Amino acid sequence: MGMTKENAANGCDNNSGVDMIPDLYAASLSMYTKPPLVASGRHITVTRRKLLKNLEVNSTQRITSWVDSMRASSPTHPKSTHSLTEDNSSSWMLHHPSALDTFEQIIDASQGKQIVMFLDYDGTLSPIVDDPDRAFMSNKMRATVKKLARRFPTAIVSGRCRDKVYSFVRLGELYYAGSHGMDIKGPAKGSKYKKGDQAVLFQPASEFLPMIDEVNKKLIEKTKSTPGAKVENNKFCVSVHYRCVDEKEWTELAQQVRSVIKEYPKLRLTQGRKVLEIRPTIKWDKGKALEFLLESLGFANCTNVFPVYIGDDRTDEDAFKILRARGQGFGILVSKFPKDTNASYSLQEPEEVMNFLQRLVEWKRLNL
């Protein structure tokens, strides 16, 4: 069954399907890359003088703030165990109940609507590991995601390079949004949500590629004196992993990263789980990628669409916020620890994610 029929069945404009994807490029650029501040081109204008002032004034305090944030983004850090008290955990679970325990409630909310699935990779489909190059998903998880993609439009949205994520997942039926959504491509094969040979290919930060490559090389050189630090080129962003760096070295590592990015006012620093990420200053993130993919699938202005986003990282909050703002679908945070989040539900680990996806597939199979 083609997308046009499915869109019509879900209250959508037939002319907004996959066959209109080329026209979406220009529309999406104007819709998503225009920041609320005065901008030049597609990136937020940040003068070198202003950036250097921000970095140099009280630079010691700034580095200290970075390191404090690095600790805060480490949920298993000893200083974070105060959040695991029984009272706090119970209160948090009341506001973010298990998606497994409330599965029927979730299904009831989705009745009559097209479910669209968005999945983070690291910590969601695969366990968090010390070596990011070995973040492999299990064969059982791969089989589950493959079945999921047969039942629902499904996308992987990751901070990793799109090619790297694809090498881990190895499923041609999915949409892949790498580099925090700055590199999007549609299914290569076997998806009823793709028409003919067309596939979404959207790269709103292409002009930054030479700069990212340059910064990657400088960071490799700058951080090589810090044992355990690993720099990963994710094409449209650079990730500095510190999972294997002794905490006593975090301040030094933060200073090394700062010394490089202060020379690049068009780049900004964000954080994930045990990783510092250098990204272009364009107004684009996982939330914008979610909106772009919904539009590409023909669901931009639909009232009968039910997006579900599952992720474990701070960067996934951008997608959770979008879903809350749209008043459609919901986010599921993968975490064993209570934390501030815009997600509505929770799951504790990838194993629970797989169980949830399996139940979703089985529910769909029984209700065809």
Features:
Alpha-Beta Plaits, alpha/beta, 2 domains, 14 strands, 16% strand, Rossmann fold, eight-stranded mixed beta sheet, 368 residues
Topology, please?
Elements: H1 3-9, H2 21-32, E1 39-40, E2 43-44, H3 48-56, H4 59-72, H5 86-95, H6 103-110, E3 114-119, H7 139-151, E4 154-157, H8 162-169, E5 175-178, E6 183-185, E7 201-202, H9 209-223, E8 230-233, E9 238-241, H10 250-261, E10 267-272, E11 275-280, H11 286-296, E12 305-311, H12 317-326, E13 330-334, E14 345-347, H13 350-366
Parallel strand pairs: 3-4, 3-12, 4-5, 12-13, 13-14
Antiparallel strand pairs: 1-2, 5-6, 6-7, 8-9, 9-11, 10-11
Protein architecture, described:
- This protein has 368 residues and is α/β, with parallel strands linked by helices.
- The protein has two domains: 3-32 and 84-204 and 284-366, 3-Layer(aba) Sandwich (Rossmann fold); 39-72 and 206-280, Alpha-Beta Plaits.
- 40% of the residues lie in helices and 16% in strands.
- The protein has helices at 3-9, 21-32, 48-56, 59-72, 86-95, 103-110, 139-151, 162-169, 209-223, 250-261, 286-296, 317-326, 350-366, and strands at residues 39-40, 43-44, 114-119, 154-157, 175-178, 183-185, 201-202, 230-233, 238-241, 267-272, 275-280, 305-311, 330-334, 345-347.
- The strands form three sheets. It has an eight-stranded mixed beta sheet with strand order 7-6-5-4-3-12-13-14, sandwiched between helices. A four-stranded antiparallel beta sheet has the order 8-9-11-10, with helices on one face. A two-stranded antiparallel ribbon has the order 1-2.
- The model is unreliable at 1-11, 13-58 and 77-84 (pLDDT under 50).
